[in-house]
Write the structure tokens for this entry.
Amino acid sequence: MNRIDSLYADATDPATFARGYLDYLSEVIARLDENSIAAFIEVLLEARERGARIFFIGNGGSAATASHFANDIAIGTRAREKPFRAVSLTDNVAVMTAIANDDGYDQVFVQQLQTNLVSGDVVVAISASGNSPNVVKAVDYANERDCLTVALTGFDGGALAKKATLNVHIPTNKGEYGPAEDGHMILDHLVGAYLARCVRGAGA
């Protein structure tokens, strides 16, 4: 059952709906696996140590989250001497539309990786359903080239949960895009906050 539909049906006014949504989001966040989050942080720290690049990908709201993640990790950590080499492959409209127009939307990320990815890099795929074809293709490509892949998923995790090296799952019901994407943004700020302080504490 989609809890957001139920919350709306039961709400008597916007304030009641707001309280129900916030309470449900709290339930979702409480069920997150902190060990998978810690493993994600370690992947990013290790990528920094070896100078590997970290590519973020996603569609729709997840594309915006990919941009936000890349900003908060590459720039927000202030790791100037030894940076997190994080970039979002959702940010170049000319590149994305050229690929989509010429070869199909399912190619928009994998073709960018074909140009930029090298062994040891990291691909972070953000998808509530875990089944977006262009994201799945990109993860398959990265796996074939000995790269680490991290999935940030919702719903039942979809194909990405099975294919990625590491899955960080937001436990939501199918179709609950809002809470799933809310959870991904919380992960962004949680991970970014830790990395910034880790870098600062190391004096690097």
